[in-house]
Fold DELLA protein RGL2.
Amino acid sequence: MKRLRNGKRCGPSQHKNLEAARRDGQSLETGGIASNCQVLSAVSIMRMATMELLKSRSRMTGDSSTLGYASAFDSGLTHKHAKHLKHVFCLLDAAEKFSNQQYDEAEKLLIFLLSASHADHPIERVVTCFARDLQERIYTENGKFDLEREVVDVDVEQELADLKDAIFASEQLLPFTQITHFTAVQTILDSLTSAEKIHFIDVGTKLGSHWMIIVHSLANRKTFPVGQLKITAVCTRKDNVEEKVEMLSSFAESMNVPFIFKIVNSEMHEFKQDQFELEASEVVAVYMEFCQTALAASPSNIEALIGWVKNLNPHLMVVNEIEADVCASTFVPRFHEALFLCSAMFDCLEDCLEQDNRCREIIEKVYFQEIIRNGAMSEDDGSFRQFRKINFWREYFAKFGIVEMELSQTSMDQASLLVKESPCWKSCTLGMNGKCMLLGWNEIPLRSVSAWKFHKD
């Protein structure tokens, strides 16, 4: 099992990237034959580009427009890989020029990229996404409008609703949803081994693919048989989780698990206690997926969410979040971080889904829009979407007396086995940051799972 290095930043931190790029570069440069046979990942190309960028800066005396271009063809790479590397250099150069308000020079580079880049490799799709939106920002800064350019915002909720069945099938092929859900659910159930009545409150759910796991696990419990399982799904009306209820209820009945399912349609920061019909004899556990990311731009909303969860008096709260830090106050660091995140995600989709899988395109669009357009590509005025890493949330939760707990050993062992089961997941990486599990691709952390308890007043 590959492990992230102590949970430390493996993204565009310069020292980490320099190390990784040297490693990748050496493995490719030791022989032309080996390099001809290998297909470099988008992350590997990004690491090599970062290394060359640092080298170029250290020796640069003149025009920065030639950053690393020559070395791209002297590195023992195939022509195709050298082309990919050149396109990344071009994009990085355009971002630097944009940051320095050299809009005309940046736009020339982007026009070249958009005419030369194709969808034959994940890095090319990443470059195209970034180049298009960076060009849009240049038009905005210059007060120009491209009347022929159509900017389409993806309605995330509607896309998920329209393609729910296809996405549900596709997510079985991807590690992130499966492993994070299983780890979270198993940790909760392992903490409730003697509970007779369990109330599982699921906040932020979209597909509910993990509910079957809960029912199946409780049905197989040998000691302390469960007297009642209640699942409350907190979601929007677009999520259409009602479709799952009948199938889930039938499954629970067939497994002899007494079952109640409740839906609460509400915004995450507007919950009311009486919506959840709590019983004195039941033990409450809360599972939150992407809730902090959705509310982080509004401190008052996230404080309201935490206050609501605390009032539920949960036995345990497990959090499944995006592991990203696209929150630097200046543009270029955000841009670099986002490039690595997108490269890792697009690599994963390339390895796990067929090229003609429509869901791959949708996931790429949604991921790019949420992480990049609403994060890295937003204005430098603090209004951008707040994507944070576990270290930030750990400090934030501590202010509210929320104590981090260990994930269960069973859940960690099973996560490791799941990674090994699929040959497509060979680049999936598991690691720990303190008590939190990090899940990534090509050593770039993308998701975190952590467990928490509220300190009793």
User: Anything to note?
Assistant: The beta strands are 2-3, 197-203, 228-235, 259-265, 283-289, 316-322, 402-405, 428-433, 436-441, 444-454. DSSP finds 18 helices and ten strands in the chain. Residues 5-37 have pLDDT under 50 and may be disordered. The longest helix spans residues 331-352.
